[in-house]
Amino acid sequence: MTSFKKVILGLFLSSFIGYLEWAKQSEFIVQIEFDLLRKINQSPEAFLHPFILIPLLGQLILVFSLLIAKPKMSWVYIASTAIALLFLMLLLVGVLSWNPKMMLFTLPFLGFYSYLLLQRKKIQLSA
Questions:
Q1: For residue range 61-104, what is the model confidence (pLDDT) as tens digits?
Q2: CA neighbours within 13 Å on the CB side: how many for 88?
Q3: Positive or negative CA dihedral for 56, 60, 63, 65?
Q4: SS (H, E, C) 56-114
Q5: Whole-prediction pTM value?
């Protein structure tokens, strides 16, 4: 597995561990996505919300990029940026409400995303 594929895998897996906390409820992104997929027949319009649709499309593109032999760097940038929008919003909410859990669980994805952006030339050479 190339280093580029490892970064894609890291982005994909870490996109599931975002943490949301509101009122007296809390869930991880993976739990929310699982609940939405279970209820797709009951309320398909729930997927139309931008904070659900855009990151979900990003995850699908990352899966596709993992499965093909030579993924395009531009598609990985688009996919990871789509997911990063959600994680940056989670980080902002975590900072504004001073919720250390929300802030902490954004760091793995944002770490992989930063690595992708900062090391793009090295990653491109090894892809």
A1: 999 999 998 888 889 999 999 999 999 999 999 999 999 999 99
A2: 8
A3: negative
A4: HHHHHHHHHHHHCCCCCHHHHHHHHHHHHHHHHHHHHHHHHCCCHHHHHHHHHHHHHHH
A5: 0.86
